[in-house]
Give the backbone structure.
Amino acid sequence: YGCRDLTVPAVANMKKIVYISLSLLAAAACRSQMDEEPFLHAITFVSSVDATKVVPVTTSNIGDLDVMVMRAGTDNLYFADVAARGESGLFDFSAPRYWLPGAALDFYSVAQSASVSNFSVSNGAVEFDYDATVAESDVVTAVTRDCRYTKDNRGVVPMRFRHALARVEFAVAYETDADGNKVSKISDGIYFTELALNGMATTGHCSVLDGAASWTCGQIRDWTVRDFTSEGAEGLYVGRDIFAGDCINTQDRSKSFFVIPGQTLRKVRISFVEGRPQPYEQEINVPQTLIEPGMCYVFDLAIKSNFVSLTGTRITPWMSGDSQEITMQ
């Protein structure tokens, strides 16, 4: 992927924007060691995001990126484009893009998803609408300001992507025995058929300024459900599919709840089977929990005598901690 010949004299001295460094929720933006020929350096990704599945975005599965580039410190658009992922795994703009000599640029990006629409930039903030009824998917955004081409950075723009939503999961509660082993508070053989959150919004508008996402919620859904009996499965078995301490939403996070922040979670519903054909179904009032962007909430569940109880709640920053660079041409 070398430089292309320019036929327009007016742009003969412009430097081509070739690299955008992608850092998904790492502690800081990261650069890899570059070759002596900067325009030949490329990093590929394994697969793209499937927006029809509830899977968190990582550097391994991120799909195409909507990108808007402004004159630094203004809302004056320089260009807007899609950094599309090709069959080779590399990302390409729809046409070659070039640095403005001596001018600084601000970069804004949202990973494409069927749930996201009306992406724009206003007063330095990323704006978009979200609709979980179209697709329940993770959403990540990034902003990097005041970028210039220099010999030192070779046109590399560090883009630190952050989760705009929150993640909610449930886990198998446990205690530790005298030997330090985890002992599940849910008996082997019990299997979960469904988990649900009560009263969560399915639509909203998001504004992200300086990395902080603020949301306005729209339509409210009575119950947001994760069904474990789809595709002919009986459910998710304790002692076979999940064990003490494991997330009931499955370890690949394919059944995680992605929740619009700014809401208060008050009630959840648990459906499980033990010793009879029909599931037990129980609604649990949880301590009122304000959902904040970029956070992960894990509720630990125990079951005794067919009664479900909440033993604890863990709230941690939602970070993948991985960092890579991708090539944009």
Q: What stands out?
A: The CA atoms of residues 193 and 235 lie 5 Å apart. The longest strand covers residues 191-201.
